[in-house]
Design goal:
alpha/beta
Length: 215
Amino acid sequence: MSKVKVSVLMAVFNTPFELVKRALDSVMDQDFKDFELLLVDDGSGLELSQSLIQYSINHEDKISYIRSKNQGQSFAINRAVHFAKGEYITIIDADDEYKPNHLSSCLHEMEFADLISSLTETVVSSNEDYYVVDKHDLHKNIHVDDCILFATLFGKKEVFKSIHFENRYSADSYFYEQASKKYRVKRSQKRTYIYYRNLASSITALHKQSRSVHS
């Protein structure tokens, strides 16, 4: 595969296919077309894996399917970085979606930055969904707009190759902090990433549930 401008990375582990398809379709529908999508199947069940493979075949000019045993999102994304051909790298969670101008908007922000993290259009069921566990104090919550979110990261490939995501809570924030020591980082105020916080199976929702059980 020849080089492309942007590599989009997605890790999937047993997310319902209708949600994954929504995410995949939103990448395919971008107004900026010079991208590849690396789809990492992180050990999903057979039925979902077959659906992911078929979708990849239907879009083989854009999508590369990678299968691995389940080791978590951080490991899956790190692995995908190894195969990325793009000058820039970004991520999309399997249960979220891009607005049609997401990639082009992020590229516009890169003139004076090596890595950006943007805000999100957050879909919630209740006001409580706007809040996630504070990495500095697991007994407190902070607004999602005050967080660094995994899938809103967009940056030069060298950033992602030199810094790896760790298997830990708030791996995205830690990655951003490490990058800020070596690279030009920037918080973008654009909201072209649609973040679904109304799903009970989301990582942050499960973490909040676990905290309430053990508090």
